[in-house]
């Protein structure tokens, strides 16, 4: 009986020793499993790719080894694709915005579900056909009156209700939306006309001057909330500055007196997420005009 127990004990000792040997053989030297997984993660080199040289570098070298004419064509092609992609994103953002509006209850109550984009295009067309006077209104009393009532004469009541309802209900996202509209308006030269037809730059400039420089336009902005007023004022100034650079400031609107007061007000208005960036841009524009005037 004791002999049988001894044999059993010896048998279990051999089994334990065997298992221990297998364990150290498999997991020894820092862990075989870990080493195996690391070996599988080693990247496989592509044909013709030396150590430390990426496939991107090889493509760059291949372009450089080609003829100068071919390389130039490839660069132009890449640039064209980049502009095309940028223009596509801008227009897609516009279309997405109006698709979003179509689903809103306040739009459905106005009977404009599915047609907000068409309504927007109609409004742009009417505003383009009936332009305000952006400067010199003080020379004619009738011009001042026309500018004060401009939107009420150029648009019908439903258009005005639509515009005001969007401004009121989308106020929280207005900073993002106005940035999108500005990019879309100013991309006409690069992108041309797409699915949504842009007004001409002269039309954009005329309304920027009207809103920033005329009694009627400024009165309209001061009836809006502070966020919308500051943002529209800011983008109008950018548009007139662009007109200046293009030598298209036909009314000779001087933006310099507006810049510092606007920059101070924007910088101290915390409800604008990018208020410091806007103020910095405005001060750069101020310096541009100051240097220009010193040089003249």
Textual characterization of the structure:
This protein has 296 residues and is mostly helical. It has a domain at 80-225. It has 16 helices and no strands. It has helices spanning 2-27, 32-40, 55-65, 68-102, 105-109, 116-129, 141-148, 150-154, 157-169, 174-186, 188-191, 201-213, 215-222, 226-245, 256-267, 275-295. α12 crosses α13 (215-222) and α15 (256-267) packs antiparallel against α16 (275-295). The longest helix has 35 residues, at 68-102. The protein is globular.
How is the topology of this model organized?
Layout: H1 2-27, H2 32-40, H3 55-65, H4 68-102, H5 105-109, H6 116-129, H7 141-148, H8 150-154, H9 157-169, H10 174-186, H11 188-191, H12 201-213, H13 215-222, H14 226-245, H15 256-267, H16 275-295
């Amino acid at each position: 009986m004791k002999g049988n127990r001894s044999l059993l004990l010896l048998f279990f000792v051999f089994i334990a020793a065997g298992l221990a040997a297998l364990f150290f053989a498999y997991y020894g030297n820092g862990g075989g499993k870990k080493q195996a997984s690391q070996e599988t993660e080693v990247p496989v080199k592509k044909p013709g790719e030396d150590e430390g040289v990426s496939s991107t570098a090889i493509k760059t070298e291949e372009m450089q080894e080609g003829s100068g004419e071919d390389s130039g064509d490839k660069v132009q092609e890449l640039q064209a694709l980049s502009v095309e992609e940028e223009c596509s994103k801008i227009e897609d953002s516009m279309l997405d915005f109006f698709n979003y509006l179509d689903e809103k209850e306040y739009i459905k109550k106005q009977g404009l579900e599915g047609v907000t984009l068409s309504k927007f295009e109609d409004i742009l067309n009417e505003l383009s056909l009936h332009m305000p006077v952006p400067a010199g209104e003080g020379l004619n009393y009738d011009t001042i009156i026309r500018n004060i009532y401009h939107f009420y004469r150029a648009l019908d009541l439903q258009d005005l209700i639509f515009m005001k309802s969007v401004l009121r209900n989308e106020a929280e996202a207005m900073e993002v939306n106005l940035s999108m509209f500005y990019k879309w308006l100013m991309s006409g030269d690069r992108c041309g006309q797409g699915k949504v037809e842009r007004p001409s730059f002269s039309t954009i400039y005329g309304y920027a001057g009207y809103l920033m420089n005329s009694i009627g336009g400024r009165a309209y902005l001061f009836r809006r909330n502070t966020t919308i007023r500051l943002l529209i004022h800011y983008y109008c100034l950018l548009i007139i500055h662009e007109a200046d650079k293009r030598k298209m400031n036909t009314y000779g609107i001087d933006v310099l007196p507006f810049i510092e007061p606007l920059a101070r007000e924007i910088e101290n208005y915390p409800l604008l997420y990018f208020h410091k960036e806007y103020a910095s841009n405005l001060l750069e524009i101020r310096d541009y005009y100051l240097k220009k005037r010193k040089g003249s």
